[in-house]
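Problem 12. The chain below contains 275 residues. Write out its predicted structure in token notation.
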Amino acid sequence: YVKHYLSEKPFKEFENSKYFLRYLQWKALELRPVNSKTFRMYRVLGKGGFGEVCACQVRATGKMYACKKLEKKRIKKRKGEQMVLTEKQILQKVNSRFIVSLAYAYETKEFLCLILTIMNGGDLKFHIYNMGGECGLGIQRSRFYAAEITLGFEHLHSLGIVYRDLKPENILLDDHGHVRISDLGLAVEIPENEMVRGRVGTVGYMSPEIVDNEKYSYSPDWFSLGCLIYEMIEGKAPFRARKEKVKREEVERRIKYETEIYSKKFTEDSMLICR
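Solution.
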């Protein structure tokens, strides 16, 4: 009944309004193929293993995004084809305000381009170490960021995806101070009722089961979140001081056998959650 009613007088009114023309314009835009001409490219925001990230703008709408340009030659040289493909496939599946979103994807002769949510607030590493005064964020801010990261993890895990690369550099802030998980290059889907194995991640944030190359499901994400909460509060990572020159093997030994030290910056609750 509702459909029948709306298809008569209300639709005729819509057809004769300015909104119908705007609707047709948007539908025409929707049908256009996405390529390099769709966007204006601006300054470089950062660099990664396979290329760089630039600010970009959709010419038709003016909306700003971040363009992750992955150089095909570099991908091939480093045998990263599967990693890049997996990242794109996972980005297509996720839908959370706590994980960067994939808006468009296209390729040129030289690059694979992922058009992502733009985050103008810097990364957590900058906020922990470069905001002047004492390093660290305090309990309140650390709790807030940890809660948003947890919601991002819960969404990934509900889709059967383990992230495996949590560190301050991969948590980005937007204009309003909310955070999103970025860089899903090491994320992997876990088959139902199974576990995975893989010695991947960043030294100092890898869980004991990853260090020992054992099978795991989602536990590495929660371990690395504990490391990040510690770092946000203390102003240093739990198993390696900033700029400390120490071998990978020593950091892995500390992760497996040493107990981290808690200063007066920690409350009882924050200590419990890190442990």
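Discussion. The beta strands are 39-47, 51-58, 64-71, 102-107, 111-116, 161-162, 171-173, 179-181, 188-189. Students who got a different answer should revisit the alignment rule from Section 12.3.
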